[in-house]
Amino acid sequence: MCIYIFLFFLGFCVFSEDVFLTCRQPFIVANYRRLQLMRFAVEQINNSTQLLPGVTLGYEIFDLCSDTRSFPGILDFISVNESVRPWHQLQPLPGNMTSKVISVIGTYSSTKTRTLAPILTMDFIPLVNYGSSSSAFSEKVKYPSIMRTVLPNQQMIEAMVTILLHFRWHWVAFLFDNGEYSTDGADLFLKKIKDTEICLAYSDEVNANTNFSEMFQKIDTQKINVVIIFAPGRTASMVIQAAINLKISKKVWMATDAWAFNRKLLEMSKIDSIGTVIGIIQPESEIPGFHDFLYSLQNISGQGEERVCSQMCNCRQLTTEEIVAADPAYSFPVYSAVYVVAHALHNLLQCESGQCNTSTTVYPYMVLAELKTSNFTLLNKTIKFDENGDPEFGFYSIVFWNNEEAEEVGFFKMYPFVDYYINSTKIQWYTNGKVSVPTSLCSQDCPVGSAKLQNGIHTCCFDCIVCLNGTYINTTADPYTCVNCFATEWSTTASTSCRPRSVEFISFEDTAAMVTLFGTVVVRSAGGPMCFLILGCLCLCSVSVFFYFGKPQEAFCILRLLPFVLFYTVCLACFVVRSFQIVSIFKIGAKYPSVQRWWMKYHGQWLVIAVAFILQVLLMLISYTSVPPKLYNETVLYPEQIVLACDINRAAVIGSLILCATLCLLCFVFSYMGKELPKNYNEAKAITFCLLLLALTWVIFATIFILYRGKHLQTLNALAVLSSLYSFLLWYFLPKCCIILFQPEKNTPQYFQGLIQSYTKTISQ
After folding, report:
1. Does the chain have fewer CB atoms within 10 Å around its N or its C terminus?
2. Closest Cα to residue 545, out of 734, 727, 724?
3. Among 146, 708, 37, residue whose Cα is nearest residue 388
4. Cα 661 to chain centroid, rounded
């Protein structure tokens, strides 16, 4: 039983002028080597007793020298009885009404594959491709019958971008031709680098008419040091030759598998002068027995009965050594393409038992279905395909051109997961060791703690802006924005992160707190009933000092102000009354006895104190109801700290403060009126001195409050409260205690009456 496989091949010889289908292309030894590898694979399968026993694979191989001239041969192969079936007839025809082939292997070019694939699809003839890597063929809606053993362009681009990012080459040029392979690569590259740090600084389509001098001048002007050539070998040769002629140097050239193993380029004169060449290739696979097969060939020169081409051609002398040394790229894809078809036939013909069922009729669509489920081992590689007909096997080798050899320096694998390795120490850069790795950047990296400010259309071109205090830069998330720290964090200039602020407040265990709280002892009262009231209020005022320490709470914020303001108002009202009474005794009583009698009759002193207390209660109630004090975190003045404090609305408490200020003013007025009273019994002067100390205390605190907002402000506030209390305790009550203890003769009603009578006689004279 003989089954035909239709094998395509591209451009390995020059057709003679006397051939009807005349066309000229250069003889390509690498393509001829692949032709022989196809032959070797078929003969190896036919000689096997395991894969297809009793079945012989037939084939025809011919050269496609152009797209249009390939149509007659294709139509002849898919025709049945010299006619092509209509599209609507999807099922195979009965009997001998079948096409001549069950599968097609090829072609090498993506452009030619795009041309031929729709024709083969009409009969669902599977096309197993070994060289067309365009991403278009992964679209099964358009190309349902294409399977391929070559890795698609998507993976080549992914490997290429990985290398660029690995060496931090962010400013690159991309050269391509107008073929399907190149234009597809250019489109994929643009999509892949969209969200990366790589910028396409220059892109151009090259051909025989390209002005290479102008092109390289633009590349040099933009200081691009990495040039990607995503094109077939013939186009790459033009670019490299032009670079040598124009003495282009100090560049890194990235080669695809289409030309990374090109022997003519590797051996080209002065190839080392252009810089460093890094290639991405499908690694050369040793095919056991293939070299022996080549050496066994006879008459391969094209002279005699056996011809090198399927048409007549004038070919030069060709030695076996030249074929063996030719570009080995795509060797395994070619070899595995033949075996994929053979294994599909193995399953369809039920050859597991050691003998194939030759009575089974095999149709192309059956082979296609079987190809999709391929899963076998070939040369220690598991051969299978994904849902798009792309191979789930194989990897890329990363090579460095070193003295006419492509030396392997790393790899890039896709299966079963993405992994890569590059041994940079093996690469001899064109910098001759002065720089470990060449750079290709539009702008140098920003210093640590600086954000990028894009300069122009490319994200790779930027200025650097230092992030200020309270901001930081996270280059991984967004290298273009200085991010504000949270309120509980802080940062210095040029920071890459924020640090938590330390929480500051005066605890009860603090030395300053302990000293301050020790000063709030209760002083025993002395004197009349009003003295009891004053001392009691001073004691109640001292309660507020306890709430300036410890971690603030909302209740603390209220109790810091409420006891002090409320009860200190009573104290001030008491001193207003006492100041007035002294003046009344020595002055008003003598001149206006009726006023004194009214004052005594209606207990005017208690009436004034009660009015002041009730008024202050109302003012505090309005203040705390409308805008109550609340917790406040001071984060502006001290970026590294969070000072816990209380926020008291000044506008809300202005009424209470005005009332206290008014009482102080009345004390001063009555004290001034009593400046000529007897020296030995002049409380007005003592009160005046106390008020001066009070005013001085709060002026000093207000000044500190403006200049300083740290945690010790709470201690200073508590000390100001204590100073307000001790100004009366020490300078008003202490002299009284001295009179009681050390001058008891002055603490009698008779002494006081004598002072009044003496003062009355003096003012009446």
Report:
1. C
2. 724
3. 146
4. 59
In 3D space, the residue among 368, 329, 336 whose CA is nearest the CA of residue 236 turns out to be: 329
- Name the 3-class secondary structure at 310: coil
DSSP string of 422-472? E-GGG---TTTTSSSS--B-SSPPPPTTEEEEE-SS-TTSEEEEE--TTEE
Q: Residue 477, Cβ neighbours under 10 Å: how many?
A: 8
State in Å, rounded, how far the first CA of the chain is from the last one.
158
Read off the pTM: 0.67
Q: What is the pLDDT of residues 89-144, one digit of tens each?
A: 444 434 444 556 888 887 888 888 888 888 888 778 899 999 899 999 999 999 99
Question: Are 378 and 48 spatial neighbours (Cβ–Cβ below 8 Å)?
Answer: no
Residue 668 has pLDDT above 80, yes or no: yes
pLDDT at 280: 94
Q: How would you label 106-133 residue by residue, b for 16+ Cβ within 10 Å and e otherwise?
A: bbbbbbbbbbbbebbbbbbbbbbbbbbb
> Residue 41 pairs with which residues in a beta bridge?
none
User: Residues of 239-259 as b/e, b for ≥16 C-beta within 10 angstroms?
Assistant: bbbbbbeeebeebbbbbbbbb
Pairing of strands 199-205, 146-148: unpaired
Q: Which of 192-196, 351-355, 602-606 has the highest mean pLDDT?
A: 192-196
Q: Are strands 395-401 and 406-413 parallel, antiparallel or unpaired?
A: antiparallel
> pLDDT band at 313, cuts 50/70/90?
very low
- Alpha-carbon separation of residue 256 from 113, 155, 172, 185, 216 (angstroms): 19, 11, 15, 10, 20
The residues, ordered by sequence, that sit 6+ positions from 445 with a Cβ below 8 Å of its Cβ are: none
Distance between CA atoms of residues 157 and 509, nearest Å: 67
The pLDDT, as a whole number, for residue 507 is 65
CB distance 226 to 169 below 8 Å: yes
Q: How far apart are CA 765 and CA 647, in angstroms?
A: 60
Percent pLDDT > 70 in the chain is 78
Token readout for 26 is: 């250069």
List CB contacts of 161: < 8 A, sequence separation 6 or more: 189, 192, 193, 196, 198
Task: Reply yes or no: is the peptide bond before residue 283 cis, omega within 30 of 0.
Answer: no
Task: Enumerate residues 6+ apart whose C-beta is below 8 A from 107.
Answer: 8, 9, 10, 64, 113, 116, 129, 131, 132
The position carrying tokens 């994904």 is 386
The residues pairing with 147 across neighbouring beta strands, listed in sequence order, are 128
Q: What SS3 class is residue 153?
A: helix
- Read off the pLDDT of residues 250-273 as tens digits, 9 standing for 90 and up: 999 999 988 998 888 888 888 889
Q: Is the pLDDT of residue 445 over 60?
A: yes
| pLDDT of the residue at 555 | 84
Other CB atoms within a 10 A radius of the CB of residue 413 amount to 15
Q: Which of 181, 194, 186 has the alpha carbon at shortest distance from 150?
A: 181
| The predicted structure's pLDDT at residue 66 | 56
The one-letter amino acid code at 341 reads: V
Q: Is the dihedral of CA 158, 161, 167, 168 positive or negative?
A: negative
- Distance set, CA 659 to CA 539, 608, 617, 618, 653 (Å): 21, 13, 11, 11, 10
Give residue 286's region: left, alpha or beta (phi > 0; psi -120 to 50). beta
